[in-house]
Amino acid sequence: xxxxxxxxxxxxxxxxxxxxxxxxxxxxxxxxxxxxxxxxxxxxxxxxxxxxxxxxxxxxxxxxxxxxxxxxxxxxxxxxxxxxxxxxxxxxxxxxxxxxxxxxxxxxxxxxxxxxxxxxxxxxxxxxxxxxxxxxxxxxxxxxxxxxxxxxxxxxx
Length: 157
Known about the structure:
Elements: E1 9-10, H1 23-30, E2 36-37, E3 40-41, H2 44-47, H3 77-97, H4 100-155
Parallel strand pairs: 1-2
Antiparallel strand pairs: 2-3
C-alpha cells in the first residue's frame, strides 16, 4: 500500500475492508500522503499514537468533514479536472485550518516575520532620526551664520 504516494483522498464505504476493526488506523498510517479517508480529513491526532489535541482537532468530527459533490452530470473532461483541482484545494485548506502542527508553524512564522519587520523599522527609524539631526544641524548653522552676518553688518564690522 505504501507505493501509492499520489492518492490524496479515498473512499471505502460499502467495501468489505470497512468491517475490519481498526481499518482506518491501518490505512491512515500505511499511506502517509493520504489527506482524507471516507469523506473525513485525516487529523494529526489520528496519525500520532496516543495524541489528544481537543475536540476541534479530533478525527471524524464535523470540522473535518469533506463535502464532495456528485460529478456525474459534468459535460466535459476539462470541467471535471477543474472540479477535482478545486476539491484538492478545499481538502488542503481544511487540513491546514484544523492541524495543530500547521497552526503552530504558522504562528511561529508570523512571530518571526513580525520581529524581523520590527527590527527593520527600528533600524529605519534610527536612520531617519540621524538624517533629521544632520539636516537640523545644517539649517541651524546656516541660520546662525546669517544672523552673525546681519549682526556684523548692523554693527559695521
